[in-house]
Amino acid sequence: MATTRNRIAHKNFRLKAAKIKFAKRLMQAGFETKTIERGLDEVIAEYKRNRITRDANERFVRSGIEVRDVYGKLS
Length: 75
Fold this sequence. Notes:
single chain, mainly alpha, 0% strand, elongated
């Protein structure tokens, strides 16, 4: 039994051929489906990186640590 995570959904999209062709060449993907899959993977990975960075920044700010310029004021 396939899980929702691995289920393949057949969708119809109207996309610009030039964009797909360019992305296909950039990603070195043999097929349009692979190009779109890789693009979606990149978007998801970027979201996860941004979330991790945001969470780390929030923890840093909440820690109350003081950051000071050890070289003096920069002009």
